[in-house]
Design goal:
Layout (H helix, E strand, L loop, with lengths): L11 E12 L2 E14 L4 E6 L5 H8 L4 E2 L5 E12 L2 E2 L5 H10 E4 L3 H4 L6 H12 L5 H14 L16 H13 L5 E5 L7 H14 L6 E5 L3 H6 L3 E6 L2 E7 H6 L4 H10 L2
Parallel strand pairs: 3-9, 3-10, 7-8, 8-9
Antiparallel strand pairs: 1-2, 1-5, 4-5, 5-6, 10-11
The protein binds adenosine-5'-triphosphate (ATP).
Family: Belongs to the ABC transporter superfamily.
Organism: Gryllotalpicola daejeonensis
Protein name: ABC transporter domain-containing protein
């Protein structure tokens, strides 16, 4: 784990990370094979790559979601190397460590807008992470915090009492985004935050990340093929193919001198 004496740990460190899904307790194929990179404070890393390349697996691991039960759930095991978020090693993630991790980490999964509980209002949904940690948290302070993040994601006050089914997909995505931000994280892990959603959400994602970046300790990992968004954010990119990083660095360098045929193909497809 790299840290400078007396300074905060690097927000995201991934060291030779290999990971496998387990089905019915049995290990399956490798979803990640020896992945290494760092996202330092102030940096944004865009993760791109082929379908099945391991992008969502990486995002899930960094968000502490090694096991997700229920329909469509998954069970991932770190089988080699490790990953660290704000200095917390993820390979052995106890519940108390997971609580510390999720306190500082905003996670916007690919299906974030579908994951919202149907029977809760927007106000309740956004405040849930606060009350899940402290049932006696001051109600006015929680409400104020919810209003701040609601405003940050461009939603009007009027949606606070609505239920998810009363909202558009784009609005639900914004609610999920607001909810992920309510605890004031310094790390954002976002999995395709703009895919298939109206174009205005894209602008909001850029604006919110720009705001979050005012915190010098902030770092973000964003899975997206939207090079325009990544350029606006001044992001570096990591290109994933078959569980391995096959291109890493500044956007123009990676696509200008591709080190792997897949990077060349992707660059052409994206018009990089
Ligand atoms: N729940 C799961 N159970 C078992 N294997 C899985 C599961 N989810 C993903 N995998 C496997 O892990 C590998 C990486 O998948 P992952 O979803 O991380 O890729 P991805 O790059 O995010 O793809 P996409 O762009 O399609 O979302 C694939 O081989 C996939 O089949």
């Amino acid at each position: 784990m790299k840290t400078q004496p007396g300074s905060a740990p690097t927000p995201i460190v991934v060291q030779d990370l290999s990971a496998q899904y387990r089905t019915k307790g049995r290990p399956g194929g490798y979803a990640l094979r020896g992945v290494s990179f760092e996202v330092k404070a102030g940096e944004i890393l865009g993760v791109l790559g082929e379908s099945g390349g391991g992008k969502s697996t990486l995002a899930r691991i960094l968000a502490g979601e090694l096991v997700q039960k229920g329909p469509g759930g998954y069970d991932i095991r770190i089988s080699g190397g490790d990953a660290f978020v704000n200095g917390l090693a993820l390979r052995t993630l106890s519940q108390s460590k997971r609580n510390r991790l999720t306190f500082h980490t905003a996670y916007l999964p690919q299906d974030a807008n579908d994951r919202l509980e149907r029977t809760a209002t927007v106000a309740e949904l956004i405040q849930q992470p606060i009350f899940a940690r402290d049932k006696r948290f001051n109600a006015d302070a929680a409400q104020n915090r919810a209003l701040t993040v609601l405003d940050a994601v461009g939603l009007p006050l009027a949606v606070m009492e609505k239920y998810p089914y009363e909202l558009s997909d784009g609005q639900r995505q914004r609610v999920a985004f607001a909810r992920s931000l309510v605890l004031g994280p310094n790390v954002l892990i976002a999995d395709e935050p703009t895919a298939g959603i109206d174009a205005t959400v894209r602008d909001t994602v850029v604006q919110v990340i720009t705001q979050l970046r005012q915190d010098p300790a902030f770092a973000g990992l964003v899975v997206t093929h939207d090079l325009a968004v990544l350029r606006q954010l001044g992001a570096k990119v990591a290109i994933m193919h078959d569980g391995v990083i096959v291109g890493y660095g500044e956007i123009d360098e990676v696509f200008g001198k591709p080190d792997h045929p897949y990077v060349a193909r992707l660059g052409q497809a994206l018009g990089a």
